[in-house]
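thread: overnight batch results

M.L. [08:02]
morning all. the overnight job finished for the chain we discussed friday. pasting input first so we're all looking at the same thing
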Amino acid sequence: MTYTLNSEFIELNKLLKFLDLVDTGGQAKMLIEDGLVLRNGTIETRKRAKIVKGDILQIGDVTITVI
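M.L. [08:03]
and the structure it wrote out:
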């Protein structure tokens, strides 16, 4: 899956919600805090991490490339 970024960055929790990977912000927060989100191969635990072009996120079997 790819996500086209139309600004400088998007916060991780907002991206997960925008892509309908979670139903609520609370679910996004729990996924992130539980260490279930990888950013460029490293666990990302900051819910407001600034996701920029070139980042690759992995949540379970879903991979998101930010372009």
